[in-house]
Write a structure and sequence with these properties.
- By secondary structure, this protein is α/β, with parallel strands linked by helices.
- It has 9 helices and 10 strands.
- The chain has a 5-stranded parallel beta sheet with strand order 5-4-3-10-9.
- Strand 7, helix 5 and strand 8 form a beta-alpha-beta unit.
- The longest helix is centred in the C-terminal third of the chain and has 21 residues.
């Protein structure tokens, strides 16, 4: 097969606000998954509507060349158009996760940018942080650029960054739950201490969740279920695109301070007529 390549770094226009991951710049701060859609045609339509440049693919569940006789996601989402982010969905040990991403590197012709997730429970899909740390140490040492899914524990996030992960991806709530951001305070702590990009990963249910994540200062949002299982996935993808853009603009603008019982009229009080 013709192995996909990583699209070249997009030049940052004057006044632009690029997202930089492992030295590469992207315009979109919305990363989307490619599972749970009706078919590859709907996957493409939703991804295009989202404006995402980075798409995640579960190596153990999606064909990107493992089966030459089956339809490939690469046909719907060519690697010349999108940056692939292979992930370890379904892995429960560090060894399994490392093995899976080494397979992805072979399938994608030496591709280094990956998403690591090591799960600790089949019901909640909560991350196993000890196994995650072990896998991260191995992958970073092996030259991978690791974006890592983790809990919203600021201490664990700091340790993963110290290992050398290029992005920290704490959950907002459980994978696929759609419960939104349950602990904004921990997310804020992670954002304030991190020197690498921070993405909310898991739990987003609707556009307002994505906007809140961005307003908290997150560098981006990764989602799949919120779009794929919406009644109209393509329309939801557009909504998520706008929400991420609006949340980022609001964060950069800086919101007005909250003032309890300090009413202030919108219009000037001087020079009143009459």
């Amino acid at each position: 097969m013709n192995a996909p390549h990583v699209p070249p770094m997009a030049p940052a226009a004057a006044g632009a606000d690029p997202l930089v991951i492992a030295g590469r710049a992207f315009r979109s701060r919305l990363l989307v998954g490619t599972g749970k859609y009706r078919d590859f045609a709907q996957t493409r339509e939703a991804v295009v509507a989202s404006g995402a440049e980075i798409v995640t693919v579960a190596i153990r569940r999606t064909n990107i060349g493992q089966d030459a006789n089956a339809p490939s996601l690469l046909d719907a989402l060519p690697a010349a158009e999108f940056t692939y982010l292979p992930n370890t969905a379904g892995c429960y040990t560090a060894e399994d996760a490392v093995r899976t991403l080494k397979l992805a590197r072979e399938l994608l012709d030496g591709h280094k940018l990956v998403k690591l997730e090591v799960l600790g429970d089949k019901d909640t899909l909560f991350p196993d942080v000890r196994q995650t740390i072990r896998a991260a140490e191995t992958l970073v040492a092996d030259g991978f650029d690791v974006m890592v899914y983790t809990s919203d524990d600021p201490i664990v996030a700091r340790e993963l960054e110290a290992i050398g992960c290029c992005a920290i991806m704490p959950l907002a709530s459980l994978i696929g739950s759609g419960m939104g951001i349950l602990n904004p305070w921990n997310l804020r702590l992670i954002v304030e201490q991190a020197k690498v990009p921070v993405f909310v990963d898991a739990g987003v249910g609707t556009a307002s969740d994505a906007a809140v994540a961005m307003e908290l200062g997150c560098d981006g949002v990764l989602m799949n279920t919120a779009i794929a299982l919406a009644k109209d996935p393509v329309r939801m993808a557009r909504a998520m695109r706008l929400a991420v853009e609006a949340g980022r603009e609001a964060f950069l603008a800086g919101r007005m301070p909250r003032k309890l019982y300090a009413a202030s009229p919108s219009s000037p009080t001087s020079g009143l007529i009459g």
